[in-house]
Design a protein that fits this description.
6 helices, alpha+beta, 40% strand, two-stranded antiparallel ribbon, Lipovitellin-phosvitin complex, beta-sheet shell regions, globular
Length: 334
């Protein structure tokens, strides 16, 4: 689910494709991860079994999410529904979305849910996510229908000029690409980044990767780590991936503009003028508690740290998202 805003920016994807009205009202706008990952590279554990994707369908599993960004925190839930299509690919949908808590205040009671329902209907997109039988991200499903549903709901309440701008933005190729990237990043956190990983417990491997910022492709260092078994559930494993980009000199205009757009999502600004004094840093950390036999995640956490140094001061921003999958309450999935 992605939130739609009626401001001039029009579309503000949050929580990696799962933004809620509560975050929209706080002005949330997360930046995409954008990394390319090749988890099988660099392993020195030839006897370790590579991790493979083996989700069963049909399946419905409750998911709870906690998100923190821009001094705003929200907790919400949805049911992740998985179905297999005739080609063998999996269709994933987020159904029964509900806000549970905003800034520490419980809003899960029926009265609050009724009050939030029309706001969410007017501000959230819920296209399906499609992945291959091997767990490869294939893109979005029924995005057009999701867009038209939101526009139809808002048609009677929006100012006509704003509604026209919103419609043009949502239907644009740029917006479609951003939505697809959002959902790709979400799937990478849950599953995609770990497929093919072949590390022994305690092993760490590093290799060069790439970060896409607009039209730029920037070099990053990627570090995979197998943290061993989960203490309370020895059949599961803890895995981590850190991606780091840092430039302390040599910032040019194109990079300053691209990084500036990313930094806006964290209430930061890249100064104009003398770029020789500018330093930029961006670090993304993914961690998952998962079943190595199926890559069904139990907990997944993403944290992004962004810093801009202007020659005198360093200003920072941070975003955290945590997902909990309750497979004990799952239906089907066997």
């Amino acid at each position: 689910m992605t939130t739609v805003n009626s401001s001039p920016r029009l579309l503000r994807p949050c929580v990696r494709g799962l933004c809620l009205a509560a975050l929209l009202l706080a002005g949330c706008r997360a930046a995409p991860l954008g990394e390319s990952t090749t988890p099988s590279q660099g392993s020195s554990a030839p006897n370790a079994e590579p991790l493979t994707f083996a989700w069963r369908a049909p399946c419905r599993v409750p998911v709870e999410v906690r998100s923190e960004q821009r001094r705003t925190s929200v907790r919400f839930g949805f049911d992740l529904v998985v179905r297999r299509d005739p080609s063998g690919a999996l269709d994933l949908r987020m159904e029964d979305q509900r806000v549970l808590e905003v800034m520490g205040e419980d809003v899960g009671d029926p009265e609050a849910q009724r009050a939030l329902a029309p706001v969410m209907a007017a501000t959230t997109l819920s296209p399906g996510l499609r992945v291959s039988a091997r767990g490869e991200y294939l893109g979005l499903r029924e995005l057009d229908a999701a867009i038209e549903q939101v526009l139809a709901y808002r048609a009677t309440s929006d100012v006509p000029e704003e509604h026209a701008r919103l419609a043009a933005s949502l239907r644009s190729p740029t917006t479609r690409d951003e939505l697809a990237a959002d959902m790709r990043d979400l799937w990478a956190l849950w599953v995609g980044a770990w497929i093919g990983l072949q590390l022994a417990p305690g092993e760490v491997t590093e290799f060069p990767g790439a970060l896409k910022l607009g039209a730029l492709i920037l070099p990053v260092t990627q570090r995979y780590e197998h943290r061993g078994s989960i203490a309370e559930a020895p059949s599961r494993v803890a895995l981590a991936l850190t991606s780091r980009f840092e430039l302390t000199s040599g910032v040019d205009t194109a990079l300053a503009e691209a990084f500036g757009r990313l930094a806006e999502g964290y209430d930061l600004r890249v100064p104009q003028g003398d770029l020789s004094r500018i330093g930029l840093r961006r670090e993304a950390s993914l961690a998952v508690d998962t079943d190595p036999r199926t890559l069904r995640p139990h907990r997944a956490r993403m944290e992004v740290f962004v810093a801009v140094h202007d020659g005198e001061l360093t200003r920072t921003g941070r975003e955290v998202q945590e997902y909990r999958f309750d497979w004990t309450r799952a239906e089907g999935c066997r």
